[in-house]
Amino acid sequence: MKRLPPQPCERINRKQRLSFKWHGRWYSGFAGDTLASAMLVNDVTPVARSFKYGRRRGIMAAGVEEPNALVTLESGSHHHTPNVRATDAELYEEMQVQAASGVPSLEHDIRAWLKPLHRFMSAGFYYKTFKAPKNWWPWYEKGLRRFSGFSAAPSEPDAEHYDHQYHHADIAVVGAGPAGMAAALAAAQGGARVILLDERPAPGGEMVSDCATDQQARQWFEATRQALETQANVSILTRTTAYALHDYNLLLALERRQDHLALKARNPQHSRQRSHRIRARQVILATGSHERPLLFANNDLSGIMLASAVRRYLHEYAVLCGDEVVIAGNNDSIYVLASELLNAGVRPVVVDSRDSSLDTAALQQRGAVVRTNHAIIEAVGSSRVTAVRIAEIRQTGNRWDIVSLKETLPCNLVALSGGFSPVVHLDCHTGSRPVFSGEFQAFMPACDRPNRFVAGSVNAHPDWAGCRDDGMHAAASALAALALTPSSPAEKPRRKSLGTGPFLYLSHKPDKVFLDMQNDVKASDIAQAIAENYRSIEHIKRYTALGFGTDQGKTGNVNGIAVASAVTGIPMEQIGTTTFRPMYTPVTMGALAGEETGLLYDPQRFTPMQHSHVQAGAQFEVVGQWMRPWYFPQGDEDLHTAVARECQAARQSLAMMDASTLGKIDIQGPDARELLARVYTNAWAKLAPGKCRYGLMCDENGMIIDDGVTACVSDTHFIMTTTTGGAARVYAHLERWHQTEWPELRVCFTSVTDHWSTTAVVGPKARRLMEKICSDIDFSVEAFPFMDWREGTVLGVPARVMRISFSGELSYEINVQANYGRYIWDQVHEIGQAWNITPYGTESMHVLRAEKGYIIVGQDTDGSITPHDAGMGWAVARNKPYPFIGLRSLSRSDTARADRKQLVGLLTADPDTVLPEGCQLVRHPEDSAMLGHVTSSYHSPTLQRSIAMAVVRNGFALQGETIYARPVSGETLPVLIRDTNFYDAGKEQLDGER
Amino acid sequence: MNYSWLGVLKAGLGGNQSWTPAWPDQEPREGYDVVIIGGGGHGLATAYYLARDFPGKKVAVLEKGYIGGGNTGRNTTIVRSNYLWDEAADLYEHALKLWEDLSEELDYNVMFSQRGVYNLGHSLQDMRDIERRVNANQLNGIDAEVVSTTELKQRIPIMETGAHTRYPVLGASFQPRGGVARHDAVAWGFARAAAARGVDIIQNCEVHALDIEAGRIRGLDTSRGYIRAGQVGSVAAGHSSVIAAMAGLRLPLESHPLQAFVSEPMKPVLHTVVMSNGVHGYVSQSDKGDLVIGAGIDSYSGYSQRGSPHLIDHAAAAILQLFPVFSRAKINRQWGGIVDVCPDACPIISPTPVEGLYFNCGWGTGGFKATPGSGHVFAHTIGQDSPHPLALPFHLDRFTTGALIDEHGAAGVAH
Amino acid sequence: MFLITCPYCGEAREEQEFSYAGEALIKRAPLDSSDAEWGDYLFNRNNTKGPTLEQWQHTLGCRKLFMVERNNVTNDILAIKTFESLRSDS
Taking CB atoms and an 8 Å limit, are A735 and C63 in contact across chains? Predict the structure, then answer.
């Protein structure tokens, strides 16, 4: 190959030479080259090996449809990029490139050595083999996997980052070829806010080649490009591929912001790639079309390319892909290329499968050779094409026959045009099916979803002027849909015809005719699949892997359908296509995730006291989105020691806990009390202002979903607390029932979880401390009994103080406006030093409550536990005027059974043995039938022994009996069933020191 | 024709001209003893086991499109049996045992690859649930172990097990016998084996109405005419409610879109299956080299076979939490299926109030792994007109009595 | 991912702002219903394919629940109704 002298519209910068390394050797190209154009100019071939047979492959296309040229960039580094298409990777300085295929190497591929065996590796052979003896499959699989995949996966963390950007647009135009440019400009001039996207580095699309030879095209292109740049209401995003179009015109597009820059030149502050999410009121798809190759034996040889690719390399990169050229095709576009090659000094042979009436005398005069009613039947060559054999052909009905073998044409480049497939992908992402057109020999976009238009080559316009006019027409339609008027009227243009001939499949050596280059699917595989009754195009795809590659069959699928049609005799329109799904081209995982990586994966919630906890050296536990202090180790204490110390402080002196994460819902209105009665299982009629009550909440299925304490502020005002994890769910639960079932209840809810912070002061000395920090509340047992709350001023801050307890000890929860939370916490901690106040976290909280047998919803219950199962039948008021949510479910035959799994206490025979939580329980030591499992289990520092809670089938009746725990590791242990209240059954601790 | 190396050699020498249909396309007959609605894996398996175990019965499978075109061909192919509750564990373990011999049984390589399945824990509660489930599995005779973070890092070095993620991995359960299989091959293998035993497989045949007289099924109106049927088994997954409505029945099901996606093929990098409910993503690497990743179901019901893109983004983010090295890998293709979700995340394998009409549905996101077991117990339920013992707990009655088998309420298990 | 126009906020917003809240117009069974009737109310759903009437909540907005008639095959939204409108109709 050679680089031609400067071409009129070339996009390379000859002043800037770039070097790149391919398999250990340095090569050079120019700025503006793609990796593929630079490889072509350097005669790098093969660039890849095929997936199944290890065949040598070269570059076939010049864009995203390329099936062969997959490479790995920056292998093994933090910039390791797998499976990059050389044809749309822009060259940058010191690019490190390796082939993505070849086992063990690109030069020597075992799969190619196995050539004599290839005939036994036809479609689906692995379904029929490797299955016996059955225990050999793991070894077979290991061997097969050795050949799988293209690039190695990255092994190092990504050096770069990604982000998302959101847009709203009146009109989004996908593709900045002549149709897209014209549409975007007309739309903008009509007053719409426009986004124009194009996957290439600059607008123009296929028109760049037209500009090289057509003065009028060049003038229009330049004028339009400038007008677009100056139009304030157009955003142009280049290097941006629209990869999915979802319902209601949500367009997703990937912008490659830095991939074209040398590693050294990349700005670490900038994202590598950005996923744009564009909500457009109207979408115009000007996505163009992909050329199809032709079907003949050995059509996969290196040096066989798409005609449009040869044209692009010529005009955009000044690369002549060969100097002995055969152009073959079934449409008029081949003559354009022939003429342009003649301009470049090459005399091509044109092989036209049609009986063309086109006047080619001028071309022939200039030195081209033209053969009509001819086709290539076979290519010759080993590492690359050296000749093609052509034959005269004839079509009878749907069938093609070789009339006579004509000649062998030596060549080093074959340019193919088997017609054009509109890029219908985006149009199909929302469920539309493309429609086959005999006139254009193509599957056309249905474009049957609202607020969507197609224009240009995707709409079968073959020429730039037709595309331009079609774009303007689409813009006028989109503007009309927005009730805007175009600045100039636009007529629907008539399509020019390329005279595309019918699909040509000769069934000559079908086991050498490649359809899907990447997956090595051949015409014979399609025929075999059909013979085996895999006749649906989806079955053909799945059985042969047609279109399963990283190119998703952009060049091969429609040819595959044509072969299936030829084999079955079923017309192509009846066979149809497989489903087009996102992604149009592959999208980096990092770009999908955007900024949701590392700690930003999900928001972290902290209480206002967080900094004090961190300073105190707390270890944290993840509870939903919350980070809660788990325990507060001192020195080198472990969990066990710290918890023992913390619990002891709570039981014997004074401790404190941050209870701010509990959900809090402010409930107000004349019917607030009635609402509580309906959503909680227990009674609420008599709860007076100043009082609190524990509530148990079920779903309509009768299972416990939440619990918590609710305080009565007034007859029309209550504050509900929920579990930390249940807050959002309970809030929505209340709203749903209120708004859909009980709209007559005059009540409203506000989530106030974040408005209040809660410091719990716990222990026998709690009253001492409270008296010191709050003077306007009487803390005496008589004046402020258990389950009461008072409004007062704590340390100068307005507060609601609740005397409730989750530990069995005297305990006050100080609720203040959240901004004072840390102040109160710190002050309590300092003033409490007089009693050696000890902060504790969730672990000690769990131990203290388990000693009292208090449940934790979600730990001791699991969605299959009723209030009765939890031993809390006392909290079920069956005779409320309006039945609470779940009541009816409790009396169903299974739910009402007496021998359900029930929550009980367990004691191990050995007091030092702490059962693992989750441990299963059986009736007799050898049993495997499970009675239940351990839900909570701790060493109780207070009782100096282990305690556990468990759900056990018929557990209430089994109290006093010994059953057995059979943990995953360790021996079977006898355990005694008892009630769950392990500590202070007489509630003597509850009032603390008087 | 038996499939073997010898057959492949012979055919290859003859230019692969001698292959015959894996299953013939049949015109519907006038009537059948049993008609199965739905030519997915479960339906075809049902037909196969009916033909194998009840050889006198004439059986047909009606498929409105092409066989295996529904959820069978749209899932992430994970197979495991480490369910919490006895009833579910027994059913899935029954299936897993059938999987282990399936390639042999069907004379079709379904590529069942027992590469093990990890379920990760990210919170203390997750770890309690893992302990509980592994313990239950072991007592139920199902292989399962609890794996520490250190051990996990040794086995899967590319996994991020440090504390620098939002939801650090605290450990995992592991089922060594779990793995993946080639989903299409399961449908095709069952179809071929069923056809060999006389089952008629009728594609492009959509059921329009059920003919019910005096509370008993008599036949079906289809796009290919009326077909008489002694018994009808509906195995229509996401469309089960549509079939039920033809019988005037309502089922405890909601159909939801479920999405999955695959990366471009890369060299082997992940040799097992990793599932995380905590960050909601699951991933394995296919024998072709793609990373196969499952996302969550859309919260809304629907029959659109496409879900919302933010779920794809979120699943990608979840996988990057676990495997940051995949950041520069590229996603090639995404798709959606329609899953029928039951309130207790367990299937329905049951007779109905209509005599002779049976339903097998409600598998939600977890049906693929049960394919042979589901087909087997459903075949026996139909064949003997009485629920197979393993199917009994999955009777529709449970929604009346309240005896739900709450798999998702209990234990953080993704399906 | 579709757009829903909240009848209270009056704007078309992303589906992600809303929460799906099940089929609409499910009538709560009375306390004296049989186990079968109760089970039918509690679990059975029409699960219709095509146009369906469903409940959505504007969770990240006004938090009001309302009804959406949606073709669940195409995701086309056919109508949006408030519960108030239902009551004034009857």
Answer: yes
